[in-house]
Amino acid sequence: MGVKEQYRDYVMTGFVKRVEPVVADRGDGALLYDADGTEYVDCFAGISVTNAGHHNTAVLEAAKAQAEKLVHACSYVYYVPSVGALAEKLAQVTPGRLQKTFFGNGGAEAIEGAFRLAKRYSGKREFLAIESSFHGRSYATLSVTGNSGRKKGGGPYMPGVAFVPTPYCYRCFAETTPDKCDLLCARRVAEVARLHLSGDVCAFIAEPVMGEGGIIVPPDGYFKRVKEFLDEEGILFIADEVQSGFGRTGKMFAIEHYGVEPDIMTMAKGIADGWPLSAFIARPEIADAFQVGDHLSTFGGNPVSCAAALANIEFLESGVVEAAARKGADLKARFEALAKTQPLIGEVRGKGLMIGVELIADPKTKAYGTAAAGFTRQYCLEHNVLIGVGGNFGSVLRIQPPLVIDEKQIDKVYDTIEAALAAFAKQQ
Q1: pLDDT over 80 at 12, yes or no
Q2: What are the pLDDT digits (tens) for 365-405?
């Protein structure tokens, strides 16, 4: 029995419409190879995971060395050197006063833990979240996810959650423009908190760049304005860096673009270049609110994954993040130039190598270009380029390759997407 048949008969894949018809056999840098040796430029990196590239030698050697000594000991029962070293490193590379880390296995687990910590510290129970956001597929994370399509069939969800408008200038909820609105989306956070909750607000959670929602980049002053309100009200700010962290946006963490320090920050995906690991980090006084027995994860802080993560971060610090910023800016500029002559492109946005190209069906109405995005994704697949599609209506091309992608590979990605859009336009 082949792997496709095994998937058909034995693997639950109902969370996606289909599994890509690629048997992922091996990878190297920004390239992925199927079982027949066909080469693909991977522009999705396992959903923004393999930031240091597939088969990164430094990461693999670190994991191998640790595996030969100790694979598991439960890092919350015993002292494990690789866990301590990684926690110290995260305190050094994360912004502001973030210092103490709790390790888990996946992004949803990190956010669930961050919520528990925030409640323990504040003594409050309610949360603010953003429309069009995505934070995971567990109970609490779906409760703060602002996308009904992701929430179908799983309710009712956690009470005490209110949603604020998406800071999405291209599709402004107030139908205004950044030069006229005075950050109305940020000001609405205070209004929603005061009008739709009971005054028991524990925390505000936000992705500094919204991934699943369609690579939505909040305007420059958004988080500073929101943080002022949060501090006035004693509400914690949880930055969800699960997808945007570890160099993805041209800085180690996306919130650094905004000059704001979160109180708690969640991490996963790019933390260990594909080894399963997640974390949330907090200021010491917040972290110390956890009492003995409050929180635990059997596999959290796995020694091998932590060793891989430490090597991964050190690799990213070797100029990779800065290079990603340059490569991303150049690629984004090329798509912006294309948008001037290609009416299917409504907006190009992103930071670093986290780029979204929003497609539209009609420039006047900004009707969602869902069909065009689906066509483009399939065209790219047939021409050996792997991309993602996001946004609430599946109309945004998500370009999130390994940060080590080279210029020749970037050219192929751009040329293939340009050709796909031309082919779609021609058949209309």
Answers
A1: no
A2: 999 999 999 999 999 999 999 999 999 999 999 999 999 99
**Domains in the chain, ordered, with CATH?**
3-55+321-427 (3.90.1150.10), 57-316 (3.40.640.10)
Of the candidates 332, 327, 321, 326, which has an alpha carbon nearest to the alpha carbon of residue 417?
Answer: 332
Asked whether 364 and 19 are in contact (CB, 8 A), the reply is no
Contact 246, 272 (CB under 8 A): no
Q: Which residues lie closer than 8 Å to 334 by C-beta, 6 or more apart? A: 414
**Tens digit of pLDDT for each residue in 190-230?**
999 999 999 999 999 999 999 999 999 999 999 999 999 99
This model's pTM is above 0.90: yes
Helix (H) / strand (E) element for 222: namely helix 222-233
Structure tokens at 42: 């991977």
Q: What is the DSSP string of 167-216?
A: --GGG-TTS--HHHHSSHHHHHHHHHHHHHS-S-EEEEEE-SSBTTTTSB
- 330's enclosing H/E stretch is helix 321-339
Say if CB 188 and CB 130 are below 8 A apart.
no
Which helix or strand (DSSP H or E) is residue 411 part of? helix 407-427
